[in-house]
Amino acid sequence: MPDKKLHLAAFVSAGPVSGSPAGWRHPEADGDLLSAAYYQNIGRLLEEGRFDLLFIADILAIPDTLGGSLNSQLRYGALGALRLDPLVVLSIIAGATKHLGLGATLSTTYAQPYVLARALATLDHLSGGRAAWNIVTSFQEAEARNFGLTEQLSREGRYERADEFLEVVTKLWNSWEDGALVRDRQTPLFADPARVHRIDHSGKWFNVRGPLNVSRLRKDVRSSSKLALRIVAAISLRDGPRSSS
Ligand SMILES: Cc1cc2nc3c(=O)[nH]c(=O)nc-3n(C[C@H](O)[C@H](O)[C@H](O)COP(=O)(O)O)c2cc1C
User: Is 125 exposed, middle or buried (0-12, 13-18, 19+ CB in 10 A)?
Assistant: First the structure.
């Protein structure tokens, strides 16, 4: 019998509800969703429960799909009524956990590759290599309106931009070679300039010179095929799944 392992991932929203609508109204619900302790408790609970990954879903707007109004979202505390920034929440959870994978939903349509590559690399270093990225292109009209657009990019445009976005982020993560960060106080040599490279990316959507100002991730992201890259980036930005046995 092959030694198959079950991997558990929790799909959470940093707000009033995740899976169950009106969850915030449950008499036993911990209501302090604007406190660090609230999310640290979730992280510890998942780690005790042998979960491999916590991933925080996100949308960059309060949805107004119901009649173009915010009323129902806000009045009933629905999924999109309030969402804290996933990267900030995960950084706090990183400090309260040791093994749990930390997955942030981040948009390739409304972010810039340099900023996102840096933020994820930072979370990865500070969490000991546990950062993960749920790559989304953002499909809600309400999000486009928060970024200077009257309507959203076409689906094709969103995915074309996403492909180039991933290419740039990967180049930035690889702009420091293995061993480039030396930190030799005697010589002194903090980092080896011969091992840190500009990326000089010039494309349809982005022009990025680089290098990234955060050293190399604690893992290999050298895969070149875009699809493989998308899967690698989306699922396993972590040194080997933690077995649930
Ligand atoms: C498990 C799962 C989680 C998702 N989480 C998010 C999310 O947090 N934010 C978001 O904007 N889209 C999210 N999506 C939507 C996808 O990014 C995508 O827009 C959707 O699957 C439609 O696919 P399409 O854009 O290729 O039409 C999620 C999709 C799935 C299947």
Answer: middle
Beta bridge partners of 176: 196
Distance between Cα 140 and ligand 1 center (Å): 10
For residue 20, being part of any structural domain is answered with: yes
Distance 161 CA to ligand 1 centre (A): 16
**Nearest CA, atom 22, ligand 1:** 139
Q: Which domain holds residue 213?
A: 9-236
Q: Does 105 contact ligand 1 (Cβ within 6 A)?
A: yes
> Within a domain: residue 243?
no
State the pLDDT confidence band at 161, using cuts at 50, 70 and 90. very high
Q: Is the CB–ligand 1 distance for residue 82 below 6 Å? A: no
Q: What is the pLDDT of residue 234?
A: 44
Q: Model pTM?
A: 0.88
